[in-house]
Design a protein that fits this description.
By secondary structure, the protein is α/β, with parallel strands linked by helices. It has helices at about 10-25, 40-50, 65-85, 95-110, 130-140, 150-155, 170-185, 200-205, 210-220, 235-240, 255-265, 275-285, 300, 315-325, 340-350; strands at about 1-5, 30-35, 60, 90-95, 110-115, 140-145, 165, 195-200, 225-230, 250, 270, 290, 305-310. Strand 12, helix 13 and strand 13 (about 305-310) form a beta-alpha-beta unit. It binds uridine-diphosphate-N-acetylglucosamine.
């Protein structure tokens, strides 16, 4: 069986790496396509190196653009690759524009689609990723979910149970594999006690006043604890464009996977609007304050260490004070987040 994988943006790389490895161990014929949605060395190449992902067979080099432009460019460049390589199954990951673009192409070419990280729903249609998730799941033939809530969402949408496979969390497969390397990472001059921040959602960073308010709140937080903030390119652009007044924070470039994981393990608290980081902190048992009104990963709130603080800056500071007083959520690790999700995906593909 010939499996073609599509990756494109930072969060895809740690999801695809274990699946590529599990299928390689079974001798599968595989093709890797990088759409080029993320292209900076520190947003892409360094992840390939650290996660030991093979060199892509095709790099579509699409780069940035509006959603329509980026999605269309990926579709146009990807279609001839599918026609040329004739895969039996195309695996797409997560919820980025590369995911939905590849799914649309395959559905029209009648190529089977497997969606890794299926079934997640924030029920917030102002979020571009939610649209990507819904469309991809509607078109996919194999839906690999990370947790039971994903199965329930899909069943409610009328997806046949036969298509749904609850395999667990592939992102946690990568985390477990590289945790020893992260634990061995030097402190690199970062403070002993720190809060780790990441922000890149359009809802938080694309409005000048909102972004200024968030950074001012972080300024208040930094009176209590040092803040390390690896800045996503989108956020970096907005800070420059809006001429934002920056409080005293340690702003650094986006970090490689292992170094970032090392900081997560050492952080007293993580403040984020990322999806994946809500999951990683839950696995690590590190309290996470999520600056979003909702999450497509509710298990991180019900079982894990995640607390949604939304846009309420007072709530952020209050929750932070609780965490720093040692009263943060302790949490538990969700079922099947055990380092073997990719093997379960390979089992399903092997049984087709
Ligand atoms: C994308 C995903 C988001 C994911 C995030 C992780 C979609 C809709 N969004 O958002 O789900 O959480 O990646 O990073 O697919 N840029 C660079 N260098 C790069 C990549 C991007 O400078 O290597 C800049 C681009 O100029 C662009 C901006 O960052 O203006 C946004 O990039 P884009 O891929 O459009 O979306 P993200 O915000 O990264």
């Amino acid at each position: 069986m010939h499996i073609l994988h599509v990756v494109g943006a930072r969060p895809n790389f740690m999801k695809a790496a274990p699946v590529l490895r599990a299928l390689a161990a079974r001798g599968a014929h595989q093709t890797l396509v990088h759409t080029g949605q993320h292209y900076d060395r520190n947003m892409s190449d360094v992840f390939f190196t650290q996660l030991q992902i093979p060199e892509p067979d095709f790099n579509l080099g699409v780069g940035s653009g509006s959603h329509a432009r980026q999605t269309a460019d990926i579709m146009t460049a990807f279609e001839p690759v599918v026609l040329e390589t004739k895969p039996d199954v195309v695996l797409v990951y997560g919820d980025v524009n590369s995911t939905v673009a590849a799914a649309l192409v395959c559905s029209k070419l009648l190529v089977r689609i497997g969606h890794v990280e299926a079934g997640l729903r924030s029920f917030d249609l102002t979020m571009p990723e939610e649209i990507n998730r819904m469309v991809t799941d509607r078109l996919a033939n194999l839906l690999f979910t990370p947790s039971e809530d994903g199965d329930a969402n899909l069943r409610k949408e009328g997806v046949s149970s036969q298509k749904i496979h609850c395999v667990g969390n592939v992102m946690i497969d990568s985390l477990i594999r590289l945790l020893p390397a992260a634990r061995g990472c030097p402190a690199n001059g970062f403070p002993e006690r720190l809060a780790l921040v990441t922000l890149h959602r359009p809802s938080n960073v694309d409005d000048a006043e909102n972004l200024q308010n968030i950074l001012d709140s972080l300024g208040r937080v930094s009176e209590r604890i040092d803040i390390v903030f690896p800045v996503h390119p989108r956020t970096r652009q907005r800070i420059a464009e809006f001429r934002i007044r920056l409080p005293r924070l340690h702003l650094v470039d986006p970090m490689p996977y292992i170094e970032f994981l090392a900081l997560q393990t050492r952080a007293a608290v993580v403040i984020t609007d990322s999806g994946g980081i809500q999951e990683e902190t839950t696995y690590l048992g590190v309290p996470c304050l999520t600056m979003r009104e909702n999450t497509e990963r509710p298990v991180t709130v019900t079982l894990g260490t995640n607390t949604l603080v939304g846009e309420d800056r007072e709530l952020l500071v209050r929750e932070l004070n609780r965490v720093l007083a040692g009263k943060g959520k302790k949490g538990a690790i969700p079922p099947l987040w055990d380092g073997h999700a990719a093997e379960r995906i390979a089992d399903v593909l092997g049984s087709l």
